[in-house]
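Q: What would this complex look like in 3D?
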Amino acid sequence: MSMELLQHLSLGIQVALTPENFLFCLLGATLGTVVGVLPGLGPTTTIAMLLPLTFKIPATSALIMLSGIYYGAHHAGSTTSIMLNMPGEPTSIVICLDGYPMARQGRAGVALCIAALVSFFAGCVCTVAIALFSPPLARVALLFGPPEYTTMILMALVTIVVLSSTSLVLTLGTAVLGLLLGTVGTDLNTGIIRFSFGSNGLVDGVSFVSLAVGVFAFAEVMAHIAAETHRPAERPKISSLIPTRQDLARSWGAALRGTAIGGVLGLMPGTGPLISSFASYVVEKQIAKDPTRFGNGAVEGVAGPEAANNAAALTHFIPMLTLGIPAGSAMALMLGALIIQGITPGPQVMTEHPDLFWGLVVSMWLGNTMLLVLNLPLVGVWVRLLAIPYRLLYPGILMFCCIGVYSLNNSTFDVFLATGFGVLGFGLKKLGCAPAPLLLGLILGPLLEENFRRALLLSRGELTVFIQHPISLGFLIVTALLPFVFLFTSRQALARRSHQAG
Amino acid sequence: MTTGRLFWGGLVFFGVGSAWAVLAASYPIGTASKMGPGYFPLVLAVLLAVIGLIAITQAALTPSDAPVQMRPFWPCVVVSAAVVAFGLLLDTAGLVPAVLGLVVISGGQRLRSRPLELLIIATILATGATLLFIRGLQLPLAVFQFGEQ
Amino acid sequence: MTRCPLTRYPRRSVIAMGAGLITLARATRAVAQSSWPTRTIRLVAPFAAGGGTDILARVLSQQLHEILHQACIVVNIDGAGGTVGATEVATAAPDGYTLLVGTPGTIEVNPLTHSLRYDPQKDLAPISLVTESAAVLVANRDFPPNTVQELIAYARQRPGEVNFGSAGPGSFSHISGEMFDYLAHVNMTHVPYRGTSAALADLLAGRVQLLFENMPPVMGDIQNGAVKAIAIGSATRSSFFPKLSTIAESGVPDYESTSFMGLLAPAKTPRPIIDRLQQAIVDGLHDPETATRLHALGVELNGSTPEQFAAFIARGIALTAKVVEAAHMRQS
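A: Here is my prediction, written as structure tokens for the whole assembly.
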């Protein structure tokens, strides 16, 4: 720790703790929590709507508030995953896998608490990482080109199959179906519109939120109503809100690993946060003594990915602050807010506007603390919401989903599309297929295709490009080894279980 | 041979894969090193069809394929109808009628037994949605409107 | 009795009815003029929130809100490369409450690449060209050529080997690059990305060597020296980098590629409303704070009359049509 860093930090503290900046940080974090909980309505829309308001306030305050919305939304995205099996953002798909089973077992409060705690932990660690290592870390983002992205996504897709606790063939089929849905829309290379069936609403492809709301939320409501009439009013008993010592012991390591994974992968523009959350899940499942607990409410399955997701949300700021490359449209808007105020993003931001840079860093830490203070009491409210009889609750769930889907493009087409996906989700459920691979396929499919074709375009058709780049080669080797590793560990687990039984 | 989850799942994958392959073949295919827009979807669609065939074969070889229980089917119909009604009413009549429609249709089977309960839910949701989405978040939605805008 | 061929009414009553309608129209127009705007004005932005033009539209909406004393909101209607939003405005009631944020994509490119249900020149009434921003030709720092002439010589020796990135097929950066290929008689490889940021990242990393993009997303990187600016694509030099020569003066005389953001209304919108909006835009651009904000974003202020904007659109459509045709021929 150098003297200089301490000076910087004390400057940051002075900036972030002025009453108005404190309030802007609180406002941003609160708004972020609200839009993060509402399905469909994301941080991008909110930041866009608030942008004109930031013209009249200093650049630092504006950035503090807008970034608060961004990481606040990431923080809150897991809430609906845990409570309703409905991922509010792509990054929280993975949280459904064990968070929702925990809620069904009456441990929603524990899952939410753990989520809040590990988010805070990841937030603190990554704020320090931004403060210490921004410039060198920024270069990592540039190491990833089309071949690296292609093989990384391929690796991610192969691991999807491992996430499944049901039939291997059916999971594989669901993932490929998701990839096919991803091919709907305008082909990036030629501009040719594929599989749109003449509908304008499909020209830009199937939106993630429509599919997620359909196969997760609508299908869940359908299953629930059916169950209610079958044997009415069996609500999970809420055992406890506070995590047990065992929960904390299990989450601790998962949060550490998740933070590391998310912190590094967050540097990749675009795909980083999504891949990080389920890379963390795979790691946790892989090193667990008993992998069969996963998918049935394993607390590590919430702690790891949630930490990874939030770590990535914060390190995502590094390419924007130091290279001026926004990692997504929400980041692009924040960049716009800075430019409008006459601040040129780039490596010189740290030296020319130290108050802005260090004020933001300190405010991120402050904001994460606020989110913890905000979210922990909310856990009680959420859990009490779950105690409301389902027949009173589900019209509200449906309404929030519908408005959320509508607000994507201000068009009812997406609402109708989500209805269709609801029927699809209902069918998949009957076949015993988990919907998560479908969603991951939808998101990763277009990325895989476009990066693969771009890599070949840049290499003039040479397929060897994927083994010439060392990082890409590394991913390929891991991808090839994965099936064997998983086969081996699942045999072991099986053997151990039969040993215990016998 | 049992006709359970594997069999039906396989059949669906095979059907969707084949149909998608036919559609994909209508776009320029290109070669592996210079792909056309049809290449990637075609490969995936064939893969899906093959996965479907494997599932059907597995089903044929497995003595106990878990059965598919489609009933009760009505929740699927009720929820779909409610959401479609919401979409149609939102475009033609505004947010409040859309929320009313959604609540009434999705809770249709309780319309006789508990009409008051439905009315209260609808009122709370319609008020809440207006305040949160139109007043608070400024979404471009009409509270009430007549005909398409 | 002679009958009007189009209707089953006697001609005289048709004339009378027509006269009546005109009077009615005048009356409503007078009403519209005096009372407009009485409710929220919607600026339909036919793209997703978060892009460069989206930010411009939000600056404009804020300004119109202050000048017209009426809420003015940006509504993003994304879809089909902007055709969904543009169709919505083209078919909306011509009452001055639904306006289109027009960009080169929706006005000039889409008629060539999409089957549209509207004619951008017939179904939309130009109000004003608000801002312009020329294409800048930027290169990776380590790319050998420093001038347009050097680039042309370099690219002619290596046909197909120089890559230029773009924000996707049909995007402004794509059309600007293809225009260079067509007019400078070179053959470079187009590498499409999903959005400018992704293309910019690969430009910084040297995977693509060139990018033709309008000023806002690349201005910071030029100032930092992260990328090298070779030339500017407007007819005259840019006020931002006056030392930067234009592509036209460096040996490609007809090259002109300028992105823009303009406001358009449904075709039958009453002229007084259009004039009022145009005046509000001009007033807004004269506001020093707004001017500073827009300037910081890297755009030049314009504030043209509706007629000037119409002529600008006509020129743009003609040139884009030639470039797209040439690009198609090159591909096949």
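A: To summarize the key features: Chain A has one domain: 3-138+153-204+222-458. The radius of gyration of chain A is 22 Å.
Q: Very helpful, thank you.
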